[in-house]
């Protein structure tokens, strides 16, 4: 993935949960596709210690066991994959944020909070997705079919710089995964009519739909030429992006979105598609920020 510095490795955060094990298996799949090493890391949540102090005794033993379990979850089909391991102490969110400075991608298990809980109690997964220096994949859904996976990569497109970053990463993922790409652009009727009124029942939307389709085509311009082997389907839909992307996630192997990195409380007020997908998507979500 194009960045201002060279980044290496797929980092998978391990916490011993079943979701983290599924995420580790997906991370191994991504690492093989991207020809990158896989880094399994367990952060012992010892926030009263000096961050970076090496865990010892029962803590270290439990952490090593969780990494062993993650390695077993990956299975025997990745014998050619370089796997690194590490155990460190401190805040899991901060440790993973630091690792993201040099990683190509960070992969995490599903959020262990609801959307509302993340507002009031916080969520390590949401924090990392909002502050990481590389794309963050959050595992969601059920394990997919054996390779090759023919399900599409889906990307949300709204024409913003963050959306441009998501489009770039989505094309790259589709190319490396050997998957088709579905580019989804939505537009709300009320933005055109000044509100939800009876007028919408008698409006001819053809011209507006053509305008929105042209905007989507412009957002994809250049990437189709760079990745000619990626089969692209363009979807222009009326309505909100969250609903559309949630529906597409049912049949997708990955949904890619940009993120402003809003605090969960702010996101709960003005809305955040990425944070809603982190909690509700039916497949893994790749959150991209422009760093």
UniProtKB/TrEMBL annotation:
InterPro entries: Rossmann-like_a/b/a_fold, Universal_stress_UspA, UspA. Residues 10-139, 151-289 form the UspA domain. One of its GO terms (molecular function) is ATP binding. Signal peptide: none annotated. The keyword Transit peptide does not apply. It comes from the Bacteria. Keywords: ATP-binding, Nucleotide-binding. Belongs to the universal stress protein A family. This is Nucleotide-binding universal stress protein, UspA family.
